[in-house]
């Protein structure tokens, strides 16, 4: 039995996410409530708040997201992409909640980052200014005073750039630090090691917390295969810098990325080009000649002579910029969903021969983009009909008759997606403190899963219900109510995709 005071209190609840109740009564099965659906539609189908402008009272502060994969001297692999894409997505989610975010490390000019640009990853370049040089010098001085540090004799397999060695294990034991690898022992410190620490220190100092470093937390987004090296850096930082921020370090560890049957190790750029080619081939199968004006080849894929010969043989082959943009966006969506829709702790297996990245795969990023484009097509068709005088313009929300929305699929879109969407964004951006040790768990897969499920339910509704009907006045009330509902659904698509740096498509 539900306590009587609870039964009497439920109807008096107020708030933006509290729906107007028709009935609230005690039953043998528990508390039964009925919602006044037309009023719920009326209340929730107004304009959505801009996710980039958090409401008053939402959390502020600063987070430094550190992605050590971008320091790797070797070419990026899919496992590196996973952590970089996760950090990029998390940064967008945190900013939407009013949190200031600093991304580390800055990208060096000595390496090509084309694949990051192609994936629309927004990451700052490295500064390498005098402040960084001064910070490295200060860290060297701190090393000279550190009781855990000892000089290294050259030779015996020790590299020339080693400055000294630091005993990490004794410090971890003295401080009682939990969650660290028991094999942490001696670290050979190089100039590059100190530069990495200096970048982290600089990012903390640049957080807009007015010098209150306790408001700034550091989250290391790292692949499981590289966590040990990061722990070495972490402990060294704690030894050399006794400020509070070094104790606020957290680890967001990504599980492994396995590639099935690779003939050789595949790089991130090869992975992108493979998925792009598959998306192109899927588009040709689906749209035929419309998509044949797009080439999945880049000039670097073939010789200059072959490229010029192809251009002379078919001068229109490479000119359709709209379709090129569509396929590029679908490729980015496919990769982002492939690497982000699994919980960050879990393993991802990439089947490079898998062609389910087409719009037919209901769990793919391309399927989400396809349904977003269907909404764009719907509203373009409506606007054209208005301009031609077929329909009157969409009235204001206050003038709409939402009692016309009787389909269960319409209520499902409102209750399962429009109503909880702000909370979905908040939960995806939560970075709870570790229960024990240094690892944290975040719901970074939430937005992708939300979009996939929304796409499936919207597609089912859209395939079943005719939105733009005959231009008879007695049908306009239902059509306008449905358009207002789908306009809100479209806004949710756009806001969620923005956290993934994916622009909505107007055609597909």
Explained architecture:
The protein is an alpha/beta fold and 508 residues long. The chain has helices at 4-9, 37-44, 78-96, 114-118, 130-145, 168-175, 191-205, 227-240, 268-287, 304-313, 321-340, 365-387, 408-418, 421-428, 446-464, 473-498, and strands at 21-27, 30-35, 62-66, 100-104, 149-150, 162-167, 186-190, 216-223, 249-254, 257-259, 348-350. The strands form four sheets. It has a four-stranded parallel beta sheet with strand order 4-3-8-9. The protein has a three-stranded antiparallel beta sheet with strand order 5-6-7. Strands 1-2 form a two-stranded antiparallel sheet. Strand 1 (21-27) and strand 2 (30-35) form a beta hairpin. Helix 9 (268-287) packs across helix 11, helix 11 crosses helix 12 and helix 12 runs antiparallel to helix 16 (473-498). The chain is globular, with a radius of gyration of 27 Å. Mean pLDDT is 84; it is low at 52-57, 210-214 and 294-319.
Give the overall shape, derived from the CA principal axes.
globular
Strand content: 5-15%
Mean pLDDT: 84
Number of DSSP helical runs = 16
The run of helices and strands is HEEHEHEHHEEHEHEHEEHHHEHHHHH
Largest sheet: 4 strands, parallel
Parts with pLDDT < 50 across at least 5 consecutive residues? 52-57, 210-214, 294-319
Number of DSSP E strands: 11
Alpha carbon gap, first and last residue: 53 Å
User: Percent helix among the residues?
Assistant: 40-55%
């Amino acid at each position: 039995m539900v306590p009587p005071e609870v039964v009497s209190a439920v109807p008096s609840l107020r708030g933006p996410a509290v729906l107007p109740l028709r009935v609230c009564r005690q039953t043998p099965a528990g508390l039964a409530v009925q919602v006044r659906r037309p009023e719920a539609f009326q209340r929730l189908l107004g304009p959505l708040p801009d996710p980039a402008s958090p409401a008053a009272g939402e959390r502020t502060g600063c987070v430094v997201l550190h992605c050590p994969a971008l320091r790797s001297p070797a070419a990026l692999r899919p496992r590196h992409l996973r952590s970089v894409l996760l950090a990029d997505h998390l940064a967008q989610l945190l900013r939407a909640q009013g949190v200031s975010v600093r991304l580390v490390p800055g990208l060096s000019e000595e390496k090509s980052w084309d694949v990051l640009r192609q994936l629309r990853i927004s990451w700052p370049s490295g500064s390498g200014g005098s402040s960084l040089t001064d910070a490295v010098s200060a860290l060297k001085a701190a090393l000279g005073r550190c009781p855990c540090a000892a000089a290294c004799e050259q030779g015996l397999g020790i590299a020339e750039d080693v400055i000294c060695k630091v005993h990490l294990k004794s410090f971890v034991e003295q401080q009682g630090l939990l969650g660290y690898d028991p094999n942490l022992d001696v670290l050979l410190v190089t100039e590059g090691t100190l530069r990495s620490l200096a970048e982290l220190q600089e990012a903390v100092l640049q957080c807009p917390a007015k010098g209150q470093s306790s408001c700034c937390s550091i989250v290391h987004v790292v692949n499981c295969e590289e966590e040990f090296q990061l722990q070495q850096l972490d402990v060294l930082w704690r030894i050399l810098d006794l400020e509070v921020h070094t104790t606020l370090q957290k680890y967001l560890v990504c599980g492994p990325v396995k590639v099935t049957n690779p003939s050789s190790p595949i790089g991130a750029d090869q992975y992108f080009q493979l998925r792009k080619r598959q998306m192109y081939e899927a588009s040709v199968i689906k749209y035929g000649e419309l998509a044949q004006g797009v080439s999945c080849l880049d000039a670097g894929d073939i010789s200059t002579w072959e490229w010029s010969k192809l251009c002379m043989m078919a001068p229109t082959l490479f000119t359709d910029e709209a379709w090129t943009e569509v396929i590029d966006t679908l490729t980015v969506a496919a990769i982002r969903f492939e690497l982000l829709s699994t919980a960050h702790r879990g393993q991802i297996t990439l089947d490079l021969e898998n062609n389910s990245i087409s719009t037919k795969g209901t769990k793919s990023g391309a399927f989400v983009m396809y349904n977003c484009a269907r909404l764009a097509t719907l509203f373009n068709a409506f606007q054209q009909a208005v301009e031609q005088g077929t329909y009157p313009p969409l009235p204001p929300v206050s003038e709409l008759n939402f009692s016309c929305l009787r389909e269960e699929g319409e209520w499902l879109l409102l209750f399962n997606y429009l109503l909880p969407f702000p909370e979905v964004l908040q939960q995806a951006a939560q970075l709870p403190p570790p229960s024990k040790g240094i690892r944290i768990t975040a719901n970074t897969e939430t937005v992708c899963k939300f979009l996939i499920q929304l796409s499936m339910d919207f597609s089912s509704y859209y395939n079943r219900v005719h939105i733009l009907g005959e231009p008879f006045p007695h049908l306009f009330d239902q059509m306008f109510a449905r358009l207002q509902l789908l306009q809100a659904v479209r806004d949710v698509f756009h806001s969620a995709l923005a956290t993934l740096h994916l622009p909505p498509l107007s055609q597909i």
